[in-house]
Structure formats: structure tokens, C-alpha cells
Specification:
Largest interface: A-B, 30 and 24 residues
Order of helices and strands of chain B: EEEEEEEEEEE
Helix content of chain A: under 10%
Structural class of chain B: mainly beta
Radius of gyration of chain A: 14 Å
Number of helices of chain A: 0
Distance between the termini of chain A: 34 Å
Oligomer: heterodimer
Number of strands of chain A: 11
Number of helices of chain B: 0
Distance between the termini of chain B: 41 Å
Shape of chain A: globular
Strand content of chain A: over 45%
């Protein structure tokens, strides 16, 4: 049983297109995240949702819009794709601790986005 | 702003040698520190989580230490095996987010 799943695994598209990536977790966690890993393998937080409420938005262009229909799902929609959006996007989930702490994070397998 | 640095960036050792991976962070107001493993083309797998009040955490051949006041953590992997070849990332938790280092890529030669 996959704990954190993402679809699609690979996404190749043209500049200017709009695309979505879906994420689902079956761990019962209350917090979900989107990370971007660039070509240098550096992993950076983009968004964090706790109980369907946005709590972290790390100066990501507003072409990126996360949507959390329920606690188990966090989708990422990207408008007007640009070449620089090419990266691996990871979804993750965890239980939030108290006072800003995060417990162990569980990652999905990643979505490899290539913008041509 | 929290900055996390991992040294060295890459490491190659013969099988059986012990591995020492270093992580440093600039803001000591953390809740915990987590070590992850990433295999090529895969997601991250959590290895260890050390609470800010702990000094070390052990799991099998893995041992991680934390010196919060000096902003340092070390991951020790005993008796390395070729299957330990991967990229190891550390991340610190504060304000509901993890800040990651760039990772140390480990190659264990058979």
C-alpha cells in the first residue's frame, strides 16, 4: 500500500501550457507539502497545508496554485508553464507537532516535469 | 533565514569503512532534525529524526548526533555496504517547515 502517491510520474509539455499534479496520502496525516528539487538536486519547500489550510507559501510565483480538497489530497496546478519550471516536484505528508514542529515526513516518488 | 550546509558534497569509500556525514545549520531555534536518504530517481526515505532535546538517535547501523547550540549534526553509518550508496540529506524543522541541505552523495565501492 503506497503511503504517499503522486500522478503523473513524468510530465513533458510545451511552454505556456497549464498542467496539474495530484497527490494523495493514506497515512492519516494532517499536514501536506509540495517541494521542488532543481537540477542541482536542491530541495526547497513551496507550500504547506495543515488541515486543508495554507500555512506556508514560500514566495512561489502565483502561476502555482495548490488546492487541498480534503486532508488526504493536495494538488498542484501550474499555469503558463515556463522553461524554468522544469524540475522534480515532490509531495510529502506528516503529522504536525506543537508550536511549529514537524514530525517525520513521508515523501511521494516525485513528478518529473520537463517544459520544452 | 535558516541555512543548512552539508559537507562533504560527495564521498567515496571502500566497503566496510565507516561513514561520517556532517550537517550544520545557522538558526539553532529548531524543533528537530531529520536525516533522509534519496536513491537516484526516487523520493526521500526518512532515516532518523532527532528531537531538539536529544543528543543522539540510533537505528541499526545508523547513529545521528545533534549539538543544537553549535548548530551541528553528524550521521554515522557503520560498516558501510554497497547498498548504502545514495544521497543523504539533512533537514531542520522550525515554523512548520523543513529546510534542507544540498546533500552528500555517497558511493560505497565493493
Amino acid at each position: 500500500d503506497t503511503a504517499v502517491s503522486q500522478t503523473p510520474k513524468y510530465l513533458v509539455t510545451q511552454m505556456g501550457n497549464d498542467k496539474s499534479i495530484k497527490c494523495e496520502q493514506n497515512l492519516g496525516h494532517d499536514t501536506m507539502y509540495w517541494y521542488k528539487q532543481d537540477s542541482k538536486k536542491f530541495l526547497k519547500i513551496m507550500f504547506s497545508y495543515n488541515n486543508k489550510e495554507l500555512i506556508i507559501n514560500e514566495t512561489v510565483p502565483n502561476r502555482f496554485s495548490p488546492k487541498s480538497p480534503d486532508k488526504a489530497h493536495l494538488n498542484l496546478h501550474i499555469n503558463s508553464l515556463e522553461l524554468g519550471d522544469s524540475a522534480v516536484y515532490f509531495c510529502a505528508s506528516s503529522q504536525a507537532g506543537t508550536g511549529g514542529a514537524l514530525l517525520t515526513q513521508y515523501f511521494g516518488p516525485g513528478t518529473r516535469l520537463l517544459v520544452l | 533565514k535558516q541555512e543548512v550546509t552539508q559537507i562533504p558534497a560527495a564521498l567515496s569509500v571502500p566497503e566496510g569503512e565507516n561513514l561520517v556525514l556532517n550537517c550544520s545549520f545557522t538558526d539553532s531555534a529548531i524543533y528537530n532534525l531529520q536525516w533522509f536518504r534519496q536513491d537516484p530517481g526516487k523520493g526521500l526515505t526518512s532515516l532518523l529524526l532527532i528531537q531538539s532535546s536529544q543528543r543522539e538517535q540510533t537505528s541499526g547501523r545508523l547513529n545521528a548526533s545533534l549539538d543544537k547550540s553549535s548548530g551541528r549534526s553528524t550521521l554515522y553509518i557503520a560498516a558501510s555496504q554497497p547498498g548504502d550508496s545514495a544521497t543523504y540529506l539533512c533537514a531542520v524543522s522550525n515554523d512548520y517547515k523543513l529546510s534542507f541541505g544540498a546533500g552528500t552523495t555517497v558511493t560505497v565501492r565493493a
